[in-house]
Amino acid sequence: MTQEPILLPDNLEDATEQAIAASHQAIADGANRVIADLRFPELKAMPIAYEFAASFNQRYGKAWQAIFSDAGAAALAKREWADLDVSVRGVNEGRRAIREEDQAFLIIEPTSVEVELVEKLAQLAGDRPFVMLNPRLENSEVGLGLAARQMRDRFLSTFETAYYIKPLELGALWRCYPQTWEVWQQTEDGMQSMAEVAQRPSSDDIDRLFQQKTGKQSGSLLGRLQQFLSALAR
User: Which CATH class is domain 32-164?
Assistant: First the structure.
């Protein structure tokens, strides 16, 4: 029986559900390092992380860790997630964040500052599922040396991007495992799939694609897309 294709979400709730399902599907298929990345402007990650945490509770009970990049976010989660009974740690806690009895790990919004710490945690996790939610590992590009960038890129190359969505001026870039990467275009009739690509396309690739298909670069402004962004960001 052919599986129905998953379609681009039109609100944040659907995008979150897709991201959770895609992450767990990738894990079930053997990926032990997984990324779920929702690239909406000014997105607050904590409500999404809560939904991910609830799904981890369903699958792993108490045998998993939620790991935050800073102590403030970890303390906030401990307060706000009291109903989930989750073990919450910071990336700086090292071995204490990767217990022997843990079956999986959820790393929330790690930044480029913590790349080395996160890589060490991933090594300690071994072949257990290690999911990075909304990683921001390229944020501090300014001042980040070549060696550090190469280390980050090498580390990221060990992950399967199970979910990615990023609004563009003229559409969206989207990947929902097990489907491939797709570039979507905003049209008069709504969002339509414009191209499927095997690898994540660069900004230049996306611009070339829009230029070929529409005569415009993806960076050109299109007012109607604001409705799509507003719906997704709610």
Answer: alpha beta
